[in-house]
Write a structure and sequence with these properties.
globular, binds fe (ii) ion, 163 residues, Jelly Rolls, four-stranded antiparallel beta sheet, 15% helix, alpha+beta, 12 strands, 3 helices
Length: 163
Amino acid sequence: MNDYYLKLNSQFLSYESIMSYLKHNEPPWRYNYHIGQARIPSELIKDDFFKNLSRFQIYPLLIKMQPTFFHKWHTDATRNAAVNVQLISGHSHTVFNDDPADKFGHKENIKELIYEPNGIYLFNTQKQHAIMNLGCERLVLSCTFETDDSYETIKRFCLENNL
Ligand SMILES: [Fe+2]
């Protein structure tokens, strides 16, 4: 069973709202290595999943990654899960594999999360993942939870509520 991510049933409805905001505003980007993160106003996200997940104190975060950048295997330091929508792919690949690498740093049986346009994904950030961006700047909406609930708890809630 895939415990790396869950594709939600709904389609993302707030792409235009975010892009219009970015056209007229410069979000407060904070940079860590070659990755920028910025919170954006919650009102921009019109989708039901966002309202339904408010019990986990969800907030919208944009993450941008520079062109031709590889973000090495890692788990997120400060969050158990996220709800991701890829806004601009940049010809990027997101892969998971939670097995330890061999002594050469190699991994087998990696699994790719192939983002569909307007697809919404609950992402298990406590499983090892890596991102390779081969193209232009990549932009992802990565909604984050302020509560400390586990990926499994949030996943169960999503399934029970048909999000
Ligand atoms: Fe990550």
